[in-house]
TrEMBL record:
Pfam families: Methyltransf_PK (PF05891)
The protein, known as: Alpha N-terminal protein methyltransferase 1
Xref: SUPFAM superfamilies: S-adenosyl-L-methionine-dependent methyltransferases
Catalytic reactions on record: N-terminal L-alanyl-L-prolyl-L-lysyl-[protein] + 3 S-adenosyl-L-methionine = N-terminal N,N,N-trimethyl-L-alanyl-L-prolyl-L-lysyl-[protein] + 3 S-adenosyl-L-homocysteine + 3 H(+); N-terminal L-prolyl-L-prolyl-L-lysyl-[protein] + 2 S-adenosyl-L-methionine = N-terminal N,N-dimethyl-L-prolyl-L-prolyl-L-lysyl-[protein] + 2 S-adenosyl-L-homocysteine + 2 H(+); N-terminal L-seryl-L-prolyl-L-lysyl-[protein] + 3 S-adenosyl-L-methionine = N-terminal N,N,N-trimethyl-L-seryl-L-prolyl-L-lysyl-[protein] + 3 S-adenosyl-L-homocysteine + 3 H(+)
CDD domains assigned: AdoMet_MTases
Length: 220
């Protein structure tokens, strides 16, 4: 895989997608999917209350945020401020308009190039975006995220999971990883899983979607 082409092809694909909820969700944004998704994510975060509620003025990062759907319906329910990180300029522009009255900052860059501020975040949320990173870049990115966590902070990942083998989608230049692949990558990034859950209520023809909550492996 040529990483330069892998990333440029993905940006080219998303530049052709309308900046709307329906666009973000591949045509599934007009039915019940957005609500089912957000409810499951908020339910998952409640399992982490024992950590997140210890953090004063929690700052979250919404990574691969698109137009800020997850920020609006999930992250601002728990965070006092959200940094939106998104590589597609028109999505960032739409997010700025849609969230103009919300406590948000906007960072237009690819996750492979983003170095988050150390110790800034109580929650780093990654949803339907890590498939656009190569394995090496994903490990390096997760290590940087780990260093960006505040005390009691958590990295959350919500991604499609392939049941048998990794699957490359040429259309949007993405890789759907297996559960085992994710676990190996987490281990390489020196992260441990403290919670995980399967998304329910999505159409059967879609990939399974899993949520993971990760924290740095204790040094001792």
């Amino acid at each position: 895989m040529n990483p330069t082409k892998f990333y440029s092809d993905a940006i080219e694909y998303w530049n052709g997608i309308e900046p709307s909820v329906n666009g973000m969700l591949g045509g599934l944004g007009t039915g019940r999917i957005p609500q089912v998704d957000a409810i499951a994510s908020r339910t998952f975060l409640r399992r982490l209350d024992y950590r997140l509620k210890k953090i004063d003025a929690l700052v979250a990062a919404d990574c691969g945020a698109g137009i800020g759907r997850v920020t609006e319906f999930v992250l601002l329910k728990v965070a006092s401020h959200v940094d939106i990180v998104e590589p597609v300029e028109k999505f960032v522009s739409q997010a700025k308009v849609h969230l103009q009255d919300k406590p948000c900052s906007f960072i237009c860059t690819g996750l492979q190039n983003w170095t988050p501020e150390k110790n800034r975040y109580g929650l780093i949320w990654n949803q339907w975006c890590l498939s656009h990173l190569t394995n090496d870049d994903l490990v390096a990115y997760l290590i940087r995220c780990s260093e960006a966590l505040s005390e009691n902070g958590v990295i959350c990942i919500k991604e499609n999971v392939s049941s048998f083998t990794e699957s490359f989608d040429k259309e949007d230049s993405s890789v759907t990883r297996t559960d085992d692949s994710f676990r190996k990558i987490f281990q390489m990034a020196n992260l441990v899983i403290i919670a995980e859950s399967l998304q329910h209520g999505f159409p059967d023809e879609l990939y399974p979607v899993k949520m993971f909550a990760l924290v740095p492996k204790p040094s001792n």
